[in-house]
Specification:
This protein has three helices and seven strands; from the N terminus they run E-H-E-H-E-E-H-E-E-E. The chain has a single domain, classed as P-loop containing nucleotide triphosphate hydrolases (Rossmann fold), CATH 3.40.50. It is an alpha/beta fold and 144 residues long. The two termini are 18 Å apart. The mean pLDDT is 92. 22% of the residues lie in helices and 26% in strands. Helix 1 crosses helix 2. 29% of the residues are buried. It has a seven-stranded mixed β-sheet.
């Protein structure tokens, strides 16, 4: 899909969220792939807004992870993880990764999942975001 504006990206995020359903035994994980500045955090902001989060959502680059409580029938928590500064998945245990990933009431959005690829569930949603030559966003969504 090609997005020509933030409004269109917001619509794509809404459509993605409508089609998203929780897994039976573990957290629902969405990997956001793309270079710096392609819109990974922006996409997550639109998702958070649709889930009723009123707070400003910033990239957790320095804190690595943020948790937002949800009043949602499918998910109780949204986790936003930025793995940009992580060297590999061995840095995840101190964040409580095992407990987070095992809870089916958790929705997890991870920026830079390639940095922790061995910890990513084999079955996770993938959103690849890039810029077109014209300066628009290209979003490739691979659902599990």
């Amino acid at each position: 899909m090609i997005s020509h504006s933030n409004k269109e990206t917001n619509e794509i995020a809404k459509e993605f969220l409508v089609k998203l359903s929780p897994l039976e035994k573990s957290a629902t994980v969405v990997g956001l792939y793309g270079e710096l500045g392609t819109g990974k955090t922006t996409f997550t902001q639109f998702i958070a807004k649709e889930l009723g989060i009123k707070k400003k959502i910033n990239s957790p680059t320095f804190t690595i992870m943020k948790r937002y409580a949800l009043k949602n029938k499918n998910y109780k928590n949204l986790f936003h993880i930025d793995a940009y500064r992580l060297k590999n998945e061995k840095e995840l245990p101190h964040l409580g990764w095992e407990e987070i990933i095992e809870n089916k009431e958790h929705l997890i959005f991870i920026e830079w999942p390639e940095n922790i690829i061995k910890a990513m569930p084999k079955k996770h949603h993938q959103i690849h975001i890039s810029h077109t030559k014209e300066g628009h966003r290209k979003l490739e969504i691979k659902n599990i």
